[in-house]
Backbone:
């Protein structure tokens, strides 16, 4: 029995690593996100049931992604992590229960749209944009400064001479994605499967002129150095980023209970198709930084945040018929 379980874990780990390589390094996934998430949860469940069989190189202990050749490496001062996942209301209740074991007193949650793009880090020195990087494996990313300078809503100069690092998502708006694919089709080139792949492929172009034509956009959702601005909460951090000229998603709200969070999720599950950019879920973050620090991190993700993933849609599966491209 145990041998069977171990063989299953080995096989799941091998498959998931293959899919992660296709997704993060080649921008050419061969399975849908829902299929990937399903296999991943299967491995998580097996590891929870048989902790003694957990593989040393389990994918559940790694942040996905590698640094591609062609780009200089950048060491992140603080790791760029992944997020734990929730798929239903019960998962959110369990998230809150875990938190309440670690901290006492009232908790508020900042709810944000989960933008389906590529995580980026932006560094500013005395108010000047000096370095942009991908997440990579979480510790080391790719230096894509010149490419990020082509993203029009990323400020090159801040209104204050601040030295700070912010993080966010770079994405391709739906309309740019449709236009780009129409153009590529007309020129007999392979089309991109979805806006995320198009954004990831574009940011890894070695020619900045190509990136400039791709019409990428960004939403900033974190200050990696909150002490630089004496910030105390996620919501006040976003307000400050907005003042500094970063593009902040306007749909976020602060919720006082998991019921309120759930209502917000329901609203955006309906509204997601009306948005001009793709989202694949909702990110729920404990709002107060002091509480976040108390709650802490696993090797892979903050314990004070969770990503609720929208259920798979049929249209997503059909994308597998399209030829994938970089
Ligand atoms: P994730 O996508 O579940 O969550 C972490 C990421 O969310 C962050 O790195 C950030 O880029 C993004 N994000 C967007 N909006 C955010 C916000 N408002 N606040 C904070 N973060 C925000 O984790 P991951 O490790 O990047 O990717 C795992 C997911 O990728 C899987 O669950 C799966 O859906 C997909 N995946 C798919 C395949 C495949 O073959 N189809 C393979 C690997 C991974």
Residues:
């Amino acid at each position: 029995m145990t041998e069977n379980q171990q063989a299953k874990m080995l096989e799941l780990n091998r498959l998931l690593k293959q899919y992660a390589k296709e997704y993060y390094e080649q921008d050419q996934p061969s399975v849908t996100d829902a299929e990937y998430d399903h296999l991943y949860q299967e491995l998580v469940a097996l590891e929870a049931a048989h902790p003694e069989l957990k593989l040393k190189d389990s994918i559940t202990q790694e942040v996905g992604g590698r640094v591609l050749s062609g780009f200089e490496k950048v060491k992140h001062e603080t790791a760029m992590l992944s997020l734990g996942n929730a798929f239903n209301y019960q998962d959110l209740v369990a998230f809150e229960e875990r938190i309440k074991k670690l901290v006492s007193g009232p908790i508020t949650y900042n709810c944000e749209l989960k933008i389906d793009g590529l995580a980026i880090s932006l560094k500013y020195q005395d108010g000047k944009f000096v370095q942009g990087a991908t997440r990579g494996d979480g510790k080391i990313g790719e230096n894509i400064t010149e490419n990020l300078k082509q993203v029009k809503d990323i400020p090159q100069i801040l209104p204050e001479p601040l030295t700070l690092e912010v993080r966010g998502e770079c994405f391709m708006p739906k309309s740019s994605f449709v236009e780009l694919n129409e153009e590529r089709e007309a020129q007999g080139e392979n089309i991109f499967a979805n806006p995320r792949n198009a954004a990831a492929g574009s940011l890894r172009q070695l020619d900045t002129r190509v990136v400039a034509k791709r019409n990428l956009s960004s939403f900033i959702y974190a200050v990696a150095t909150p002490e630089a601005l004496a910030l105390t909460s996620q919501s006040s951090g976003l307000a400050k980023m907005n003042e500094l000229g970063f593009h902040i998603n306007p749909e976020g709200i602060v919720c006082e209970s998991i019921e309120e969070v759930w209502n917000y999720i329901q609203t955006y599950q309906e509204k997601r198709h009306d948005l001009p950019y793709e989202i694949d879920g909702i990110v729920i973050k404990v709002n107060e930084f002091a509480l976040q620090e108390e709650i802490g991190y696993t090797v892979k993700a903050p314990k004070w945040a969770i990503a609720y993933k929208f259920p798979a849609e049929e249209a997503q599966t059909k994308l597998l018929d399209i030829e994938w491209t970089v």
The longest strand covers residues 118-125.
